[in-house]
Amino acid sequence: MDYHKILAEINEEVSHLIGKGKVADYIPELAKVKKDKFAIYLLTLDGKSYETGNSQELFSIQSISKVFMLALMISKIGKRVYKRVDVEPSGDPFNSLVQLEHENGIPRNPFINSGALVITDMMLSHFENPKEEMLRFVRSLAGDDKIFYNEAVAQSELRTGFKNAAMVNLMKSFGNIKNEIEDVLELYCYCCSIEMSCCQLAKAFRVFANHGKGVVDTRQYISKSQFKRITAIMLTCGFYDEAGEFAFQVGLPGKSGVGGGIAAIMPGDYSIVVWSPGLNENGNSLVGMKALELFTTKTGSSIF
Ligand code: GLU
């Protein structure tokens, strides 16, 4: 497969879309990001890499961190995680409160905000220093110590995350939040604020493409079966209320974030990360989705 040529073609074919869409300006610090960015980084399991665009530039991974948070807690308490958060697609926006009240404060899945807030609560209960633990875990997956939180982004979201605050309060009223509300919100915003490049993210997602085997052999503490489940949740819940559309157009498990990144995997074959900050109306990178659709179409690779 001539991946160099395919990435160059994609770059050309999406160029008229770059700059379209809307940046996530509900987090004031993210409103400053320029929309004219585009990058792809592809990492195959035989160790080869291919890239185009600003693939070494750091961006806010936002909800892509929810995959790492889930994996971290699975590594600590295994399937008990799923007692407090379900695994069904929500069909609602990522920050919706609607289902939570009907469903007694049990979030639909760990990849919407309410679900990740419950995972955050678990992190606070299990670690002496969850902020450090999270960074250590992500760095170990990526095999890269130069991964950090962005203070300004975290503080910016903390000041304006009123819906997240409403969710934590509602879940606390149902007994599904054990720690202090302020602590949950703070840790959650920090996890979302992690900055990584397409290259670093592709390295961190390699382990998911390889059933637990990566830079660090996570199979020691996350079983192959648990990896299967995390990947299944990526496919069914990784793209807000557009998970069906992503499976239909692209056909890979993955996770997006409102920073404009999308990380996806072809199990047994590769991890691929795209970044372009302009979002569509569902909060997914507009160019990123198109680029991945072109990639799986041109390469004929998809899990289906
Ligand atoms: N920090 C963002 C929020 O809670 C994450 C949203 C996302 O990337 O889906 O609104």
CATH superfamily of the largest domain: DD-peptidase/beta-lactamase superfamily
What profile does the largest beta sheet have? 5 strands, antiparallel
The figure for the number of domains is 2
Q: What's the β-strand tally?
A: 7
If helices are DSSP runs of H or I spanning 4 or more residues, what is the number of helices? Answer: 12
Computed structural class = alpha+beta
- Write down the CATH topology of the largest domain: Beta-lactamase
- Helicity range: 40-55%
Tell me the series of helices and strands, N- to C-terminal: HEEEHHHHHHHEHHHEEEH
What bound compounds does this protein have?
A: glutamic acid
* Uncertain stretches: none
- Share of residues in strands: 5-15%
Radius of gyration: 18 Å
Which CATH class of the largest domain is shown?
Alpha Beta
Cα distance, first to last residue?
19 Å
Envelope shape: globular
- The average pLDDT value, as a whole number, equals 95
Q: Please list the strands of the largest sheet in the order they lie side by side.
A: 2-1-7-6-5
CATH architecture of the largest domain: 3-Layer(aba) Sandwich
